[in-house]
Design a protein that fits this description.
heterodimer, A: mainly beta, six-stranded mixed β-sheet, B: mainly beta, seven-stranded mixed β-sheet
Chain lengths: 112, 118
């Protein structure tokens, strides 16, 4: 079965790095995504990584993928108060049927 | 560029009332989805439509019906609302289902409908 897990809460100080972790179970996943949800808003696609990549960097964001351990992480460098949000990990599968499975979301709080 | 538009943004219903949540996308996407979001549970898929004219059940379809009116619009109907359906509902769309290997098909989300059932 498909399952995506994340820790529910993370607090960091402004200026520090944040690392949000995610584990998934479906080895056939092709793309893995990170979405950001700000209060009262929908989910905004932040970044994604293809399953044959180990790392992807996009400005302050670094995505690391350990396919052997089915572990995905999102690192936010120089975390700002505007980064406070819920971050969702999602996996996309090739099988017909539900093609996206989301984790429960990690609420990131950035302290001044 | 509107993307995915949901109406209404907020709604309060009494138990037993019915209502329809509307969703429209202007990205010419084939696939559309309805999710509900509850605290600590992430997003759960209610129904999806892989293409115009088709709909399929997701993880939590009971108590809901959907209509894919045309390529742009996908509505969600609660026939007899229950307190357990109090939630935030999100509509999403993607170009097509991830049925091809190496096909990057992210989902694009609306801003949500906050629904309370008393």
């Amino acid at each position: 079965g498909e399952d995506v897990e994340q820790s529910l809460f993370l607090s960091v100080r402004e200026g520090d790095s944040s690392v949000i972790n995610c584990t998934y179970t479906d080895s056939s996943s092709t793309y893995l995504y990170w979405y950001k949800q700000e209060p009262g808003a929908g989910l905004q696609l932040l970044t994604y990584i293809f399953s044959n990549m180990d790392m992807k960097q996009d400005q302050r964001l670094t995505v690391l993928l350990n396919k052997k351990d089915k572990h995905l992480s999102l690192r936010i460098a120089d975390t700002q108060t505007g980064d406070s949000a819920i971050y969702f990990c999602a996996e996309s599968m090739t099988s017909y049927g539900q093609n996206f499975v989301f984790g429960p979301g990690t609420r990131l709080s950035v302290l001044p | 560029n509107a993307g995915v538009t949901q109406t209404p943004k907020f709604q309060v219903l009494k138990t037993g009332q019915s209502m329809t949540l509307q969703c429209a996308q202007d990205m010419n996407h084939n696939s559309m989805y309805w999710y509900r979001q509850d605290p600590g549970m992430g997003l759960r898929l209610i129904y999806y439509s892989a293409s115009e004219g088709t709909t399929d059940k997701g993880e939590v379809p009971n108590g809901y019906n959907v209509s894919r009116l045309n390529k742009r619009e996908f509505s969600l109907r609660l026939e007899s609302a229950a307190p357990s359906q109090t939630s935030v509902y999100f509509c999403a769309s993607s170009e097509e289902r991830a049925s091809r290997v190496y096909s990057n098909q992210p989902q694009h989300f609306g801003d949500g409908t906050r629904l309370s059932i008393l």
